[in-house]
Automatic annotation (TrEMBL):
Pfam families: Glyco_hydro_1 (PF00232). Its EC number is 3.2.1.21. This is Beta-glucosidase. Residues 311-351 are annotated as: Disordered. Belongs to the glycosyl hydrolase 1 family. InterPro entries: GH, GH_1_N_CS, Glyco_hydro_1, Glyco_hydro_1_AS, Glyco_hydro_1_beta-glucosidase. Residues 315-328 have a biased composition (Basic and acidic residues). It catalyses: Hydrolysis of terminal, non-reducing beta-D-glucosyl residues with release of beta-D-glucose. Keywords: Carbohydrate metabolism, Cellulose degradation, Glycosidase, Hydrolase, Polysaccharide degradation. Signal peptide: none annotated. Transmembrane segments: none annotated. One of its GO terms (molecular function) is beta-glucosidase activity. The active site is at residue 380.
Amino acid sequence: MSDSATPATPVTFPPAFLWGAATSAYQIEGAVREDGRTPSIWDTFSHTPGKTAGGDTGDIAVDHYHRYRDDVALMADLNLQAYRFSVSWSRVQPTGRGPAVQRGLDFYRRLVDELLEKGIKPAVTLYHWDLPQELEDAGGWPERDTAYRFAEYAQIVGEALGDRVETWMTLNEPWCSAFLGYASGVHAPGRTEPAAALKAAHHLNLAHGLGTKALRSVMPARNQISLSLNTSVVRPLNPGSPADLVAARKIDDLSGGIFHGPILHGAYPETLLEATSSVTDWSCIQDGDLDTIHQPIDALGLNYYTPTLVSAADPEDKGPRADGHGASEHSPWPAADDVAFHQSPGDQTEMGWSVDPTGLHELIMRYHREAPGLPLYITENGAAYDDKPDADGKVHDPERVSYLYGHLSAVRRAIADGADVRGYFLWSLLDNFEWAYGYEKRFGAVYVDYVSQKRTPKSSALWYAQAAKAGELPDPEGI
């Protein structure tokens, strides 16, 4: 197994390493019309015919809103030390502006109290793609005002939970919010406007900066503020080809530099601005924006699933774009029609994504160099497989066990190579609503029967529980 120790040699982690799992609000909560919650863009999108597999919605999802106590007890049984969840903006602030609905905040207060009672560290993500529909109706993320509305929302949640929650993430995967939401249209709100997508990316960056300042104004200084990026690990098909190297640089800028440039370094890459000049003049960047975005952060979250393999496009090849981000006639990569995407070698998950732990090691070491001294967390990593209960009701998922073993071994290797990785959040705790894929793709370590809502820990959950308890990786063949 590449990038990992042999099963006979346990891979040990630092004693303070944090073992967690992650979810997001729209994917698990359900209860979309309860306690004052109003529609988000994902409610609208999922109820639009043809937008999700089977017409699936998150109306019920896995009913976590009503079952959170049982779910937290399950986390404790699995030896989780931390749980990363997101807050539903429209549950807390239904119109995206104005005062909070306390009934909505009370759910998160109860959830945090339950976690703390079980000795599980809560980690809050403020935005995991579910913009209140009223803000989208006013223009959404391409509108500058949305960033200021986010800062107001961040302050509300920070005031409510900041005394008990020490770990905060402003945004999850802003690349998906901007480019799948506003360029390719495969995610909510389903728009296909490349210039608007680039504006959305800038305003998401601005929201992170403004939100960070808002959180710091109302929370104890001990609290850690970060965000989670899904920067692509971009590899040229032919490393000796100058044209392929240019293609890789373009996609690297659009997936990573557009966010970590201003957030970590206070500037967008010049190569990004030049490459996208045919789409936008970047006049959305106003004086002072880059200073606002470039707030000190306490850590950086990295989400990784699979590497990206690209080349310069063959002008004669008009085939589908195989970038792993859903089928659409519209590209999520503005001004990158001259780039071709290729399937990376190796085994594939149910998403069609190649299994390659070397990419996670590469990503960690990149940010170890990009932001020396900044603690790193793997805030998402996992795989979808076609999991089914056997005749005894047990769910065996050896492919996911192998996936986790390989990727956690890559994390440990990066730590040995000097990277300051403080923790790992498995994606995902529970099978759930997988966005446009509906309920077809199962990422959970815990199997959910969507009719009965019964939870059944898979083999991977039991393996991960052993790892979390021992602080080392058990033999993946031993479960």
